[in-house]
Structure formats: structure tokens, C-alpha cells
């Protein structure tokens, strides 16, 4: 039975999803809250609607579909590849706009042809938005975290720094702060007096003794060595931190990372520009660039309008389950994101899947698409 | 109009607050007996005193049912979203000092800054199969400090309403966010404060609920200048 507040184009959209070879699924509106908080972080708590079951389990109103669709896939264990489609209401506390609105989208799970499935996600998202807004020119922004990871890796930074930078990718402010720290010798690591004593005792170079010392101290102070971080964890990261503190990024390398992050150009020009960047800087980015090129070729191959897509090197999402492609679809000249998507190869194993399942998908903001239809004077 | 000032109903906070008002020429007398929860100010007929618990004072300031309150800044900032838009911190009163701090086990030799903690939090799930757990009663202050100021998202708050310092040793949380005045309780529990882990340096404040009716009310101005002059 259609709900009275469904966007008028919902039936067309679902028919289109079906013609794209997807399987429509539904997920309960009331979901366990833990998976959302575990994946997106504690800050999400303020932006979702939470309640408790009679037994004290934290529940929430579905704030998005990707996690429920993936959980459903894991539970039903019907194997991959699978292409799921959904359309339904989601609930979030927003400063602007209503707290309940419709989203629809496709999640493509288990296709091992990365370039083809990436291109299909971008192409399908563009197509369904374009079909709702005939005659309007779209503007698509595309980013790829794996290229950034390759750049950072090729710069020869120690593992700890690579992890920090990659973790901050997509959060411009945080990333620029980290780069400034890397360049500025004043911002050395802070070490407590205890570490100096360990250094004098010669323990910092002797991991076995250090681990034993930490273990004994934990025992003596009533800290269990298995409830939280173990002596090995602490000793290993202490070593990593000393590396972090002793690493300076020379100005040339820093410029190079900044130059990379400033890249912003039509997607069609990006493969050549990235190749030139790698050649000029002497960084070995071959694998990442080959995958990038394959995706651009696949997009052209399925007939997507590549001319409206821009590549922006710094574009990413600071969520650690996004691993590669991210993209957003807008109408040219308007700021509203009508569709957003990306590759989340790490999500299914984080949610409990036993084998690695590559995944890519997108979701549509149906309320914003309705507004765009109204703004262009069309009937919905 | 009658102005209501809420004061802490017991303990050191009550005595210290009463002393300041007395120095300000606003001697507070209980209505009825000493244990009464209502009072008045000698010579100030349009001022009423309500004795409430410190956390109630922050709540009542937020919903505007009192005009002024004396309570800890930590309770106001924890209790009210957008505190500065809803209340004005008029005067810091010089007692009830307590810092809200992030503290980790002393044995975490590799963690002395929020950046260190960010590294540990980012790796925690992969290593331990769960998020870094923070014991605290300060949900809002913790979220603002971790997520807002330091970009740390992957943690889990375990609500703790007492003996929070014991949580890391007992294994119910990894680290804590709590108040400390001298640091001795932290030290006794083998915890250390991070170098940039002070979230708030709190003390008792005279706080005003922002109400349109206060604009141009002479009593509001008189109370403010009397208290400020007594400091």
C-alpha cells in the first residue's frame, strides 16, 4: 500500500531499480543502535533517535540503509554477488530540513570486478537522478582514498604517520593540521617523565624487558593485563610514537602532498594528470593509478556522461570503512547533494561477515530531488 | 518583577555562596526554619532565594524558571546544549574549583596527548574488537572535546555516576573523563591527565538565564554589581 507522503516518482524509481537488475529489500525501521554507533562513532548518538527495549538494549530509528542492508545480507547468508535496492524512510536529527525523509539506493555486494562495479554505481546514480530531472545538467564530484593512500605510502613516511594521515583523509581541517605538525620541528611528541627513566634504564631499546616491566607494573598497580591494552600493545606503540616524534617531512615532500591534495579537474583529464604527477615527483603509484584508469575507462564504456564528472583529490569521507571511490551528484550550479555513494570494502567484515566482501553503493536524497524538481518547474 | 536566585542547598557550596552574598550586602535568611528550601534577602523585597541541588540549578536555568543561580560551570555546560546562548556566566566566584580532565592509566607510557589517544582509538577496534571505552558522567563535554575539538570518533561512553576513577583498573572502561581538584584521587588510582586533556577549568559561577524581561530591569543590574563588587 503506497504511503501518502511517498515522493510522487517513487514507483518510477523502483521500476528503474528493478530494470537495473536489483533485488528490492526492506529492513525494519527500528534497528539495534550499536552497529551504527560502532561504525560511525559516538558523535552519531546526538543525530539519531534512540530508545531502549524493555531489556535495556539500545535501539534507534533507522538513520540510513547501508548498514541494515549489509546486516540483512550477512544474516540471510545467501551468497554473493548481490545487488540490493531499497526505498524507505530514514530518521535523523537535522538542523535544517525535516527529521524524517525518504532515501532510496542500491548496494552492490560481492562483485570482484572493482572498476566495473564502481563505474556501475556512479553511472546508475547519475542515470536515476538525470531521469527525474530531464534537461538539467548534473555535476558529479569524484574522489578516491586509495590514490591518497598510495601517495602517502610512496612518500616513505613511517607507518604511524601514514595511519594518521589516512585516518584524517576527507577532513580537510584535521589533515592540514597534521601536515603542519609534520613540517614543524617544534611540535615534537610529548613524553612523560617515566619514559625518560625508561630511556636511562636502557629499556626503550629492549622490547622484551620493556614488555616485562610494563606487565609487572600493571600487576603491581592492580591493572589487569588482559582487560584493555596489553603490555605488548603499549610497548609497540611507544616505539611507533618515538618514530612519529622523530619524523619530519622535508619541505619538498610536504609541497608534493599539498600539490596532490589541490588537484581538481575534469575526470577525463585526471588519468594523464596523475601520471604526470607521479612522473614529476618520482613517486611509485602504479597500482593505484592503473585502478583509477580502469574505472575511468569503465565509466566511458557504460556510456556515462564523463564530461560532467570532476575529480577532486582531497574529496573523501572520514569514516574508516570507506576504502576507495566516493562520489556526489548535484544539479550544476546548486549546492544540494542529491546522491552520494562510494566503496566500503571494509564494512561487511566489520559488521561480522566471515569472508571479505567488496561493496559499493549509493543513496538518493529523495526530499532534495523533489525540491530540485519543484525548482525546475517540472511536475513531480 | 520578582527575581529568583537559586543557591546550592547544602555543604561547602551553600556556605561559600551565602558568604559572598553577605559581603555583597545581600544577607540571606531562610524563610521559616534553617532547613527551609526558601529564603529571602534582607532589605531586597523583590528578590527570592530558592535552595536547590547544584544540578537542578543548571536545569532550572536552562528552562528559565529561575533568574540567577550559583552552580558549577561544569554542570551548566554538561546539562545544557548551546549553554552560552541560553545563559550568561556573570561572575566567577572563586570557590568550587574543579577541572574536567581526560585521564588514562599511568602505564600507558605512549599516551600523553589527545593526538596519542586518537591513534590508540583509531586502532582499538581492529586490535580488541570493540571501541575504546570512556567512563564518565560528562557525556556532552566528552563528545565536544573528543569529536568536536580533536576529531576522535571511535569511542564508546560508559556512563559512570560514581567512583569513576576506579573504572580502568576494574576493567569496566579504558580511560575516564572526570573532575579533579588536586589530582590526588587520579594519582591514587594510577591515572594521569593528558597534557592537553583539560576539557574545562570549572568553578562556581553566578549564572543568569537569558530572559528578555531582564533587559532594563534595575534589580538585575543591582544584583550583578553588588556581587561583582564583593569579589
TrEMBL record, chain A:
Residues 10-181, 243-369 form the Class II Histidinyl-tRNA synthetase (HisRS)-like catalytic core domain. One of its GO terms (molecular function) is histidine-tRNA ligase activity. The keyword Glycosyltransferase applies. Pfam families: tRNA-synt_His. Keywords: Amino-acid biosynthesis, Cytoplasm, Glycosyltransferase, Histidine biosynthesis, Transferase. Pathway: Amino-acid biosynthesis; L-histidine biosynthesis; L-histidine from 5-phospho-alpha-D-ribose 1-diphosphate: step 1/9. GO terms for biological process: histidyl-tRNA aminoacylation; L-histidine biosynthetic process. It is found in: Cytoplasm. L-histidine binds at residues 64-66, 92, 103, 107, 317, 321-322. InterPro entries: aa-tRNA-synth_II/BPL/LPL (IPR045864), HisRS-like_core (IPR041715), HisRS/HisZ (IPR004516), HisZ (IPR004517). It comes from the Bacteria. One of its GO terms (cellular component) is cytoplasm. Gene3D superfamilies: Bira Bifunctional Protein, Domain 2. The keyword Nucleotide-binding does not apply. SUPFAM superfamilies: Class II aaRS and biotin synthetases. Required for the first step of histidine biosynthesis. May allow the feedback regulation of ATP phosphoribosyltransferase activity by histidine. Belongs to the class-II aminoacyl-tRNA synthetase family. HisZ subfamily. Heteromultimer composed of HisG and HisZ subunits. This function is generally fulfilled by the C-terminal part of HisG, which is missing in some bacteria such as this one. This is ATP phosphoribosyltransferase regulatory subunit. The lineage of its organism: Bacteria, Pseudomonadati, Pseudomonadota, Alphaproteobacteria, Hyphomicrobiales.
TrEMBL record, chain B:
Residues 54-214 form the ATP phosphoribosyltransferase catalytic domain. The keyword Amino-acid biosynthesis applies. Keywords: Amino-acid biosynthesis, Glycosyltransferase, Histidine biosynthesis, Transferase. It is an enzyme of class 2 (transferase). Pathway: Amino-acid biosynthesis; L-histidine biosynthesis; L-histidine from 5-phospho-alpha-D-ribose 1-diphosphate: step 1/9. GO terms for molecular function: ATP phosphoribosyltransferase activity. InterPro entries: ATP_PRibTrfase_cat, ATP_PRibTrfase_CS, ATP_PRibTrfase_HisG. It comes from the Bacteria. GO terms for cellular component: cytoplasm. It catalyses: 1-(5-phospho-beta-D-ribosyl)-ATP + diphosphate = 5-phospho-alpha-D-ribose 1-diphosphate + ATP. Its EC number is 2.4.2.17. GO terms for biological process: L-histidine biosynthetic process. The keyword Transferase applies. Belongs to the ATP phosphoribosyltransferase family. Short subfamily. Catalyzes the condensation of ATP and 5-phosphoribose 1-diphosphate to form N'-(5'-phosphoribosyl)-ATP (PR-ATP). Has a crucial role in the pathway because the rate of histidine biosynthesis seems to be controlled primarily by regulation of HisG enzymatic activity. This is ATP phosphoribosyltransferase. It comes from Ensifer canadensis.
